[in-house]
Amino acid sequence: MRKSRPALVACLLLLTARAASADPVVIVVMDGLRPDSVVEADMPNLTALAKGGTFFINHHPVYVSSTEVNGTALATGMRPGRSGVVGNVEYRPEVDPLFPVAMEDEWAAWTGDRASRWISVQTLPQILRAQGLRTAVTGTKAVAMLWDRDWANRTVESPTLYGGSTIPGAFKDRLVAALGPIPPVTDRRYFVNGRQDRWTTEALTKVIWAGGELPALSVLWLSEPDYSQHGTGPGSPQSRLALKSSDDNLGLLLAALDAGGRRARTNLMVVSDHGFSTIAQSVDVLTDVSKQGFPVGGGFLEKPENGSIVGVPLGGLVTFYVLGRDRAVAERLVRHLQTTNYAGVIFTREKFTGTFSLTDAGLDGPTAPDVVMSMRWAADAPRPGGLPGLLLSSSTGYNPGQGMHGSLSRFDMSNTLIASGPGFRSGLRSEVPSANSDVAPTVLRLLGLTPPAGMDGRVLEEALAGSTAAPRVETETLQANASAGGRTWQQYLKVSRVGTQTYYLEGNAGAPPAGR
Prior knowledge:
Layout: H1 5-21, E1 25-30, H2 44-52, E2 54-56, E3 59-60, H3 67-76, H4 80-83, E4 89-90, E5 101-102, H5 106-115, H6 124-130, E6 135-139, E7 160-162, E8 165-167, H7 170-179, H8 194-207, E9 217-222, H9 226-232, H10 237-259, E10 267-271, E11 277-282, H11 285-291, E12 296-297, E13 309-313, E14 317-322, H12 327-337, E15 343-348, E16 356-357, E17 371-375, E18 377-378, E19 390-393, E20 403-404, E21 417-420, E22 428-430, E23 434-435, H13 439-446, E24 474-484, E25 487-498, E26 501-509
Parallel strand pairs: 1-9, 1-10, 2-22, 3-23, 6-7, 6-9, 11-19, 12-13, 15-16
Antiparallel strand pairs: 2-21, 4-5, 7-8, 10-21, 11-20, 13-14, 14-17, 15-17, 18-19, 24-25, 25-26
Helix pairs in contact: 7-8, 8-10, 9-10
């Protein structure tokens, strides 16, 4: 039977009241933080939080292991193919038919939202604000804009801060009056981006939280250690200073919670968007492909013809958009990639011998590329005492010894999630696989709301207070082989499954390593 309008209104009011009475949630994103970097010498605040709460030691990004993809997964609980964001940079001809566009670019997002929908689903802040709840999203990096990019009907009580810009614009005046302008960016090869991260932390703790009650959801996205790891490689002396910088900002946030007597009734989740590797060598993939006679380019002077290829080098991967979905061109491209020494794992929209499908990686959306190639990697350490994980990089502006991610390396595909607060179990090291797409449904559960039907991520029941859940975990290794260039091409993809959720552990060219 249909409920009457008054009954529906009563149900909505009850739902909102329950959420409003729930303990607030704070998400701190430490961009690029590897779990093996969480050590007391560099990060005393975070290690203490891990000991007193839940450390998800088998946590993973969604693939692609890059910032905008996982920022969107964190914000929506969706895999990339369903959220609509499958790369940091994508070819979106409805926005720009000549050049790929950055997904966190404000103009591109504004234009894309009017052409269709830049992000295909609602984000956490949008879901909560529709329930009448306050939210605050603050980020040193522009990716924070993807969390809550609605320009209409916004107030300073539920702002978005991204790289010094704000929605609504009037909120920036309040920040500048209190803190001054955001400090200038530094050269990542020599300096930690600590001043900008400190400014963003104070924007949340000293300005937004100054009113008393916390928003239902607060997000703080720090640029470190990603910023320094790109410049000097993970595990370098500068990157260790970057770890301390992020830990110090966590300390400021915890002190702000303590000062208001709010820490005991706040659920805190510290997460990273992806892991990290060290560059062994940079490879100009597009030049190599063009030498084989493919009409490939990273941009065009006029609208490209069908059969042309838009190639987007993204560090740990390259995406290829074959215009007109020309199957013959895509297949020839795949056959060439399978003969190279830089290809790791190849995914394709149409199934070809020796590849996995985009569906196998959760990338099968209408705007996805036709071919996605993860770069090859190795488990070696770059130097004695350094963090393991070497990667071939498709971004030629980076040099060996600097850092990169985006691949299916086990080091890119292992990231950090630590949770603490009244909603979580204490002293738990959870070995159950989890992913960034699980954060949003878990936040909604903590706030007393039911995750929307069809959300890809799962509620992390095993870590919630009072739970004794022990989900069943199944792990398998997918393999694909082909004959290419007179030799056998092999690739593998190792995944774990909990219920209907798939977690990507690693993938590379060749046979899977024994014992893993």
